[in-house]
Amino acid sequence: MIGTISFRRLLGGLLAALLLALPLHAREAAPLAQDEAAEKRLNAISSELRCLVCQNESLAGSNAELAHDLRREIRGMIQAGKSDAEIMDFMVSRYGDFVRYRPPLKGTTLLLWFGPALLFAVGVGGLFVFLRRRARAIDDRPLSEAERREAEKLLHSDEPRP
Known about the structure:
There is one protein chain. By secondary structure, this protein is mainly alpha-helical. The protein is about 60% helix and about 0% strand. The radius of gyration is 33 Å and the shape is flat. It starts with a helix and ends in a 6-residue tail after the last helix.
C-alpha cells in the first residue's frame, strides 16, 4: 500500500513537471515572408489552385509535401516579379487545367464542367426507369379464394415457418 502511494506521487510529480516545462519550449511563429503584400498574393493565387495530392483542397489549405513545394515555387516567382497571370499560366502548362479550381471552358475541360451534372442526370434517369419497371411488376389484383385460404392458414398456424 505504501509503495503504491509513493509510486503514484512520483508519477504525478513527473507529469506535473512535464506539463510545466512545455511552455519553455514554445516560440513565436516565424513570419512566412518578409513582404506582407507578396504573402497576400501567394494566398490569393494558391487558393485558386487545386492541391494535386488532396484534389479536394486548395493549394493554400493543403499540408501535403507537394503543396508546400508549389507554394515555395509560387513565392519565388512572386519575388522574381512575375504577374499572377504568368504564374497561373506556368502552373497550367506544367500540371494541366485540372490544377485550377475554375478551369476555362474548352473542349478538353467539358467533362470537368459538365461531368457532375451528366452523372446526376444519368442517375436520376436510371432511378426513374427502375421505379417504373418496379411499379409495372407489382400485381395489384385481389387474391383468389384459394390464395386467401392459404394466407389465413399461414397467418394463424402455430407451426414454425421455413
